[in-house]
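Hi P.,

Sorry for the delay on this. The queue was packed all week, but I finally got your sequence through. Input first:
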Amino acid sequence: MSKVFGIPLIAFIQMVLGTAVVLFVLIKYLSRPRKPKGGEYIISNVHVLVGDGTEKHDQHVHIQNGVIREISDKPLQKKSIQIIDGRGKTLMPGLIDSHIHIQGGFSCHNEEESDAFLNEKMPQIFAESILPFGITTIKDMDAPKHFICKLRDKIRSGEIPGPELFIVGPNFTAPDGHPASTLGSNSKWAREEMAIEVSTPEEISAGIQELKAMGIDFLKFTYQGGDYWYFDKKLTIRKMDKALMQQLIREGKENGLKATAHVFYYDDVKELLEAGIYGIEHGILDRDITADDPIVKLWKESGAHFIPTVNAMTYEKDPARMAHSKHNLKVLYDAGIPIAMGTDNMLEMMTGITEHRELAYYVEAGLTPMQAITLATKNGAEHLGIADRKGLVKAGMQADLILLDQNPAENISNISLINKVFLNGKVVYSPTPIQSYDIPVYEYPENLKAVEYVSTDGQESRTVSFARYADERIITQTYSRNGEKWSEEEFLVEPNLSAVTWQYLRRSDNTNLRAERKNGIIRISGTFKGKPQDKNFSIAEGLWYQMMDMSIPAFVHSGLEEILLYSIGTGDNRGAMGLGEFLAKKVGSETVSINGREYHCTKVSFALTAFTWAWTGLYWYDQATGQLVQSGTQKGKNETILWQVKEFLFS
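Then the structure:
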């Protein structure tokens, strides 16, 4: 048999073929397209708000294993790394809310209910109401102690994905003080879990040791007495003894725990600052202060931090407290007092839009958008003692970040235009497209020119005119109160009644607004109650049913059973000048009798998707004309009729 190099020919051929196969496989392996490395990517060509009041343009941000590794104004040459295109976008640190309440005892009255809330509701709250708004770090200021410790542990273990959580545990207070007689009034369990009522030095010491053993991050106590409005109930609460307050601050420091205090009044703030308090929650709400007020000098010398919670003042019965809150925030900011954003947000009921509104209030108070952002990023990290790893877009920092479609330093309302949220470098939110609907062209009944409505108490009326709809797609609406014209609106609408432009005039309180939809963004400008407005809302292809109930005939006319729609609020509640998302749903047919005439109606329910607990509207649409004939609200099983048709006006 022939041989090659002393090897039988057949064996040599097999060896050569085998080597060729191995080389082929190796070459294909080495030249294959490589998958991006997990947990590593570059956000390229992005505008950066650092978090300290500075900004950088056209930056390339390298993130690896949850940490910002490098930031450069030149492209980063790294192989096989995912690239996120940041052109036209803004990157900023995640928001830090230093005053929040996760569970306030409203829906939980025992530990079993609390555990169910923890396991069933908290993942949903974080996923839908917190992280999508860019909130990546929170300090809970009072929750049932067993609940908050369990939640903290589940977040740390990764069992419940959520923002980094700092806790204070139950609040120290005088017997029958806040929160014992307020939040604790919902159940004996809530009172014991959320308040430590103290009247002796021994109780102070025991309480501190209990909380230290729990591993809390801060001590919190209430230093307020007298009249206290708990929602619509007026209470008289007791204030902690001054000597006990001083002991609490002193012993807290001795045990490595900084104390922060709920406080509303000037004299109480002064006593707290003199005692060496670390944090002032809410602040001076009984008067305006000036830059030369002695308390400003005392505050600055003390080094105490301030958490203003301006948005919480919308709950207060006395509107002067909101004015004092905003005024004093600006005075203290200008004086160089360390201030961190806090909202008093109740996560059982509210969403992260509260944090966005808080920032808007700071701008109303006189801060620039960039200054407001700094309070929610760098300053928040400094307040919580984590400035070495959070609060800035900087190499070495934890990658808790927000990627926005527009720059919030130009307009604070752009904080809502979120493209992505990163928590520890992981994308935890990327918005799903706003749903669009195939609603057919709507035409009003022939010769119908207007409809008049009257409130059931006879105090209000409104007229909706369609006279210009056929030729111009314009609808007008006029409200009157006690016979006086109160507001006027004009809508340019699409064939499905979704708004293109909206003009709103209310002379009584200097409200004059104009909004226009363009390229998926609603831009609103003008004045609302005398305050200048310049806001953007992202709506994409969604339904801008600014006419609300008067837009629904198009939906009723369609084959759809439910839709999501959007409208800008103009009332006196927290939804004013915000874009609300509503769920409209057909809930059946009913016959309605008004002034001896019967209407066979399609019944439609409305609910704010973020606050389904707060409000449900009911609307009845005449199946013959398609028009609204009656509307009201529902609470539980009770229905209250508020408006009814007075007359259909035909030409």
